[in-house]
Specification:
With 287 residues, the chain is mostly beta strands. Helices cover 10% and strands 44% of the residues. It starts with a helix and ends with a strand. It has one domain: TolB, C-terminal domain (Neuraminidase), CATH 2.120.10. Pfam families: SdiA-regulated. Keywords: Cell membrane, Membrane, Transmembrane, Transmembrane helix. InterPro entries: Quino_amine_DH_bsu (IPR011044), WD40/YVTN_repeat-like_dom_sf (IPR015943), YjiK/CarP (IPR009722).
Length: 287
């Protein structure tokens, strides 16, 4: 009888331990946000379904003439998507397979960010005779970079850490890459404060309060728009990167929000990976 009781006790302890591990894992990956339960404060005014080759769309940027440059996180190809025809009208191969996460167009040059911080410069990307240069830096895949912004007034690109800073979970750095000397400054230009009061309603680990999947600068007011695809949210910061407004994005509308860009006159576009459905691009107005 004692042996039976001992076995029963071990079974109960084992089941409870397993349940604890499952709960810990669940909490590790789940983010709760009260904004998700509130009425939406945005309007989707246009939607474009993307073709199969862009199921993994990870970054978009405005080219002009109602066209967007798109990349996906598997192949080194830039796709030119025409919003008027809803078709890819051109594909530009710039590198081999890789985890490409964002793209910015600067004149006739496309800059593509890989998740390990490597920057690909594709000059004359629309000419049919493009050339690619790469720039390495001190960032790695441990930081997991998915967002790249073009700061036109200061002739630089901005890269935001998604996962973790090297030594501090209290902030995530936004680093500047000079388009003059093609170097990444070691000290962050801005610091996204993970303890900001605006992020208080996000119930998750400190370093997961804000995980930038895209970063763009509004062409008119110069505010920063920061997209986060995890329990999706859009955070707006002023020109000094001080957070000032936050929107919850319903997952029914934004299954996996990865890319964000503006047209010259301020139209805002967000791209979503397929994630079991069809990838799309949405034109959104925030209230």
């Amino acid at each position: 009888m004692k042996m039976v009781n001992k076995i029963a006790t071990l079974i109960v302890v084992g089941v409870l331990s397993l349940a604890g591990l499952i709960l810990f894992g669940y909490n590790e990956f789940i983010t709760k946000d009260t904004l998700q339960d509130q009425p939406v404060a945005y309007e989707i005014i246009n939607e474009w379904q993307l073709p199969k080759e862009l199921d993994e769309v990870s970054g978009i940027d405005w080219v002009g003439d109602n066209k967007l440059a798109c990349i996906q996180d598997e192949d080194g190809i830039i796709f030119i998507f025409n919003l008027e025809t809803s078709k890819v009208e051109k594909s530009i191969e710039f590198a081999g397979a890789g985890d490409y996460e964002d793209i910015r167009i600067v004149g006739k040059t496309a800059y593509v960010l890989r998740s390990d911080g490597e920057i690909f410069e594709v000059s004359d990307f629309l000419s049919g005779n493009s050339k690619t240069k790469t720039y390495s830096n001190f960032l790695t895949e441990k930081q997991n970079l998915e967002s790249l912004a073009w700061d036109k007034n200061n002739k630089r690109l901005l890269l935001a850490i998604k996962d973790r800073e090297l030594k501090d979970d209290n902030y995530k750095g936004v680093y500047q890459f000079s388009l003059t000397n093609k170097e990444l400054e070691r000290n962050p230009l801005y610091r996204l404060n993970m303890q900001d009061s605006l992020l208080r309603e996000r119930e998750t680990k400190l370093n997961k309060k804000l995980q930038p999947s895209a970063l763009s600068i509004h062409p008119k007011n110069k505010d920063f728009y920061i997209l986060d695809g995890r329990a999706p949210q859009l955070v707006i910061a002023n020109s000094d990167m001080k957070l000032k407004k936050r929107y919850g994005l319903h997952e029914d509308d934004f299954e996996q929000a990865e890319g964000l860009t503006f047209s010259e006159n301020g139209r805002l576009f967000i791209s979503n990976e397929g994630k079991g459905g069809k990838a799309n691009i949405l034109e959104v107005i925030f209230k």
